[in-house]
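hey so u asked for the seq, here:
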Amino acid sequence: MASALRLFSFRDIQVRVHWTFLLLIGWIVFSVLSGGQGFREVLVGIVLVLVVFTCVVLHEFGHALTARHFGVNTRNITLYPIGGVASLERMPEEPKQEFLITLAGPLVNLAIVLLAGTVHLLLAGLRFVQDPFEGGPMLLTLSSFLIVVNAMLFLFNLIPAFPMDGGRILRSLLAMAMPRTRATRIAANIGRLFALGFMAYGLFNGQPFLVLIGVFVLLAASGEARLVSTQAALHGIPASRVMRTLFWRMDAGATVQQAVDELLAGGDKDLIVQDRGAYLGVLHESDLMKALQEGRAQARLSDLRPKAAPPVNPDADIGQVYLQLMQGKWNILPVLDGERLAGIVELENLSEFIQVREATGGAGS
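ran it, C-alpha cells below
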C-alpha cells in the first residue's frame, strides 16, 4: 500500500496508482520536449495519457463488476505504466465464469468505441482527426482519440498471451475440454512465446514499454502456471494432514519483552496468541519491534491487539487454503478443531509437503 496512492473507491473497490506511473509521465514530458515541442504539447500529451488510463480503469471495472456477479470480490485496481490490474480475490475454476469475467474488460472498450463512434458521426460524419496535437475541434479530437485508443485496447487484450485477457479466454475455452491444469500449461506456454516476441520487437524497434509488457507476461505466465499446478497437487487433501503442530504460541498475558526473548532464541516470525488456551489472534515480529520502539516492553500481548487471522477447519481442502494464503494478507492461518488450536498452515510448510510427496512418489504423509 505504501507504494501506491489511493485515488478513489467505487462499489467498495479501491482504485490506486502505483508510484512507477510517474515514470510514464516523465517519459512523455521528456519525449515531447526533446522533440522540439513546447509546454502546450506537453500538457496535451499528459491529458491524452489520463484519457487512456480512464479507459483502462473502466476496462478493469468490467472485470471486477462481472466477477462480483459470480461472488468474487476485487481487492483493488492498481494502475501501472504498462496498464491496469484488477486484483480479484480468486479466479473462478468454472471455465464459463472465467470466460465471462475476462471477456467483460475488452467488451467495455468495444462499447466505448461504439459510443464514441456514434457521437463522432453525429458531430463530423466521416471526418477523422489523425493527430491529437494538430489542434482540431476539442470534441472531434477527443472522439477520434477514444475510438483509436479503445479499438487498440480491445484488439491488444485479445492477443492470446496468458495471463493477459486473450490468454485467459484461451485457457477458459481449453478448460471446457480438458483439465484446468493442462489448459493452464498450454496457455502459459503460448503466453511465453508471445512475451518473447513482445520483448524482441520492442528491443529492435525502440519501444521500451512493449519490452516491459513482455517481461510482465513472461513472469506472470510462469507464476500463475505454478500456482495452478500447486493448487491441483494440494486439491482434496485435508488441512489436518499438512498443518504444523509445532509452532510459536504464547498466552495473551505474556509481555512483549518475553515474546522478544523467545524470538531471539530462534523460531517463527509469526506468533499465535492464546487467551487461556483459546485462539485469540496473530502477531508478527514487526508488531513486537514497533511496541519496543514505543517503549512498551512490559505491555501484554493482548494490548497489541492480535490480528484475527481466519481459522481453518481440519477437514478443509488445503488447495483452497493455499489460494487464501497466496492472497498475501496472512502469513499463517490457525487450524481449529472446535475450540482447540490444532495447528497452523503456512506457504513454506505446504511447499515442503509437496516436495515430500514428490520425493516419495506421492506416498508421503
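Strands lie at 4-10, 13-18, 74-80, 83-88, 249-251, 270-275, 278-284, 332-337, 340-346. The longest strand covers residues 4-10.
lmk if thats what u needed
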